[in-house]
What does this fold into?
Amino acid sequence: MKILLVNYRYFISGGPEKYMFNIKEMLEQEGHEVYPFSVHSNKNVPTEYDKYFVDPIGGRDVVYYDDYKKTPKTIMKLLSRSIYSFEVKRALKRMIADVKPDIVYIIHFVNKLSPSVISAAREMHVPVVLRLSDYFMLCPRFDFLYDQRICEDCLTGKYGSCIKKKCVKGSAFASAVRVFSMKVHKVIKIYDKVDAFVTPSGFLKEKLKQSGIDEKKIHWIPTFYKGQPEEAVPAGQYGLYFGRISEEKGVEVLVKAYEKLGDDYQLKIVGDDSTALAVKLKQYVKDKKMHNVEFLGFRKGEALNECIRNSKYTFVPSICYDNLPNAALESFAFRKPVIASNLGSLPELITDGYNGLLFRTNDADDLARRVRELDDEIIRQMGENACQVLKERYSEKLHYTKLTELFEEVIRKKK
It folds into this structure.
């Protein structure tokens, strides 16, 4: 099978990119041909196919919106990539004409490539499978979060409250652009051109159904953990959070829970500690004279593995609808139970008392209470159960089988 893989970054930036490189490697190991299409960046992994990549919005050294220089040219390109980019469409059609793929598998395109990638494939008579890793089709700010609370005002396509509340980056302009782009996409029925949607969680599948997407097109294929689980190790001495230190991830409630737990309970936080929230929380820990919370900064590879290996358990305290986070699967692979918010897709991952614990979202008291329930034997048994869940439900083989079966079905129907 010849698979054209579309993603707006061709370097590791977050969960979607980890998935992209993992699935690319897996498909290639099984004998499939995989061709990447993305945006030029100085951070990109080298590939012979970057001759088809499109120019970035704000320069090859710039990744994030806040770093763009808001020149007229940049603003025009921002608008184009948010709404519909003919430049991107032409580039992808040229690549399709050259490599002649059997299918186009889209990981992420929002605001960097635009949904014109869907039209490009459709006009070239190539079937399209779109994987969703967030709620960009349903919520202008992708996460159904407003003022640290869940908000579903936009779920059924009524976006007025987004502009009123300035949901996107606290800006009426950014919110208006995002809303306008979503309305245009509805008018031109761009997502009707998608042959199949892949969701990593059953929760996201239900939200798509509620929004009006044809259920027959939605396929729940959980993501996977790449590699083999670790051998059992003794329980460590601390709880661990690793990931993005941002509002929606619930790190603040975790710190406040450890304030209540006191010095008998230790917490280590791994992630970029230069974010606004990280700076705020480090000052909070200092002001409160807390000695049981330590920020370790960003770590990856074996340095991160060592942090997980030596922990007692890990946390996914999200206050938004998290969508099957990689951190949970990585924890399972190290036989560590996960303590998570009882929200979104997390109850699909965590069976309370079996492979982890669930606590009331954004409730530091309840989180502290659940931590106090644990002893070393409970932790050990839940860790073994977590590893078993990983093997049964989130294996590479299972994901590969389900995904390639879907590809074959879509190709067959198109023919």
DSSP finds 15 helices and 14 strands in the chain.
